[in-house]
Design a protein that fits this description.
Pfam families: WD40, WD_LRWD1. With about 325 residues, this protein is mainly beta. The protein has a single domain, classed as YVTN repeat-like/Quinoprotein amine dehydrogenase (Methylamine Dehydrogenase, Chain H), CATH 2.130.10. About 0% of the residues lie in helices and about 50% in strands. A hairpin with a 5-residue loop joins strand 7 (about 80-85) and strand 8.
């Protein structure tokens, strides 16, 4: 499908087309989960990855050897998302339990539980520093948690969405303190935490995932009309649309390459699609799974891609 450039021009540093490696050769299949694997995430160095799924477990893998390192149990319901601290000592998970579990990586123990949502928690991410967490829930709320506090209550609650919050991301570039949240109501909401301001971009179609560019200037939004939209984060302008994949009924993800030159998108038909960000053209599409691709994680250097699927597998691509 032809690219759809919209709105202002892209930033000048993206006008060129740098040569970038596409990890499309299968390296390992990571087996162990029973049922859909909802999320896979690299640690900050890209040495390990964590996965979580419908089977209520989290698993730590070495994706470079295909080895399962550790399995974490404690959730009573499905686990929908996970985020790892930058120092790799802890991670936090969320799901159908309606609470956040904070884990010690080495011991495998749950060191804290944060309660406050009234429905399953769909998304979690790190805020500024390793002690701040941001969550988005089916209860339509975005909540900010300070793990240094003795209180178990969130320090901030945003209830502007009119439907389930599906994805949250933070922007701390240049000293910013910004949270962006996507919702089934079709809104992408950007909160300036310090200034107490809310900016809403109405896309008029359910949004299941957000991904930020390296400099925080752009947001990718995976929308349920089989379109990934690129937004200017400051103004909310629509910069580009990427099409050619299938996304109509499930929560799937997208991401940017480490140089921001390419867009990676999951597809409900099991494919992984790659587009050139500047031109909007699809440059690669390969069959990754036998069922819908739920999640994807790019190595910090872009050399390796991990994908997870409804088919119960995690695959490593180099």
């Amino acid at each position: 499908m032809p690219p759809t450039p919209l709105g202002p021009a892209l930033p000048p540093h993206l006008a060129a087309e740098p040569s970038e490696h596409f990890p499309t050769s299968a390296s390992y299949e990571l087996k162990g989960h029973e049922g859909p694997v909802y999320a896979v995430r690299f640690n900050s160095q890209g040495t390990y990855c964590l996965s979580c799924g419908k089977d209520r477990t989290l698993r730590l893998w070495n994706p470079h050897t295909g080895r399962l390192v550790k399995t974490y149990t404690g959730h009573g319901y499905d686990v929908r998302d996970v985020t790892v601290t930058k120092d790799n000592s802890k991670f936090a998970s969320c799901g159908g339990d309606k609470q956040v579990f904070v884990w010690d990586v080495g011991s495998g123990k749950i060191i804290r539980k944060l309660r406050g949502h009234d429905a399953p928690i769909n998304a979690i991410t790190q805020g500024a520093g390793d002690e701040v967490l941001v969550t988005g829930s089916y209860d339509q709320a975005v909540k900010v948690w300070d793990c240094r506090s003795r209180s178990f209550d969130p320090v901030q609650v945003m209830t502007d969405a009119s439907d389930s919050v599906t994805s949250v991301t933070t922007n701390t570039a240049g000293g910013r303190a910004e949270v962006a949240a996507a919702s089934v109501d079709g809104g992408v909401r950007r909160y300036d935490i310090r200034m107490g301001c809310l900016f809403t971009d109405a896309l008029h179609v359910p949004v299941t995932h957000l991904a930020a560019s390296r400099d925080g200037a752009m947001l990718l939004a995976a929308c349920m009309d089989s379109c990934i939209r690129l937004l200017d984060r400051a103004e909310g302008d629509l910069l580009m649309e990427f099409r050619g994949h299938k996304h109509a009924s499930t929560r799937i993800e997208c991401c940017l390459s480490p140089t921001d030159a390419h867009v990676f998108g999951a597809s409900e038909d099991g494919r992984v699609c790659i587009w050139d960000l500047a031109s909007g053209e699809m440059v690669e599409s390969h069959q990754a799974h036998s069922d819908s691709v739920c999640s994807m994680a790019l190595h910090p250097e872009g050399s390796t891609l991990c994908t997870s699927s409804v088919d119960g597998l995690i695959k490593v691509w180099v």
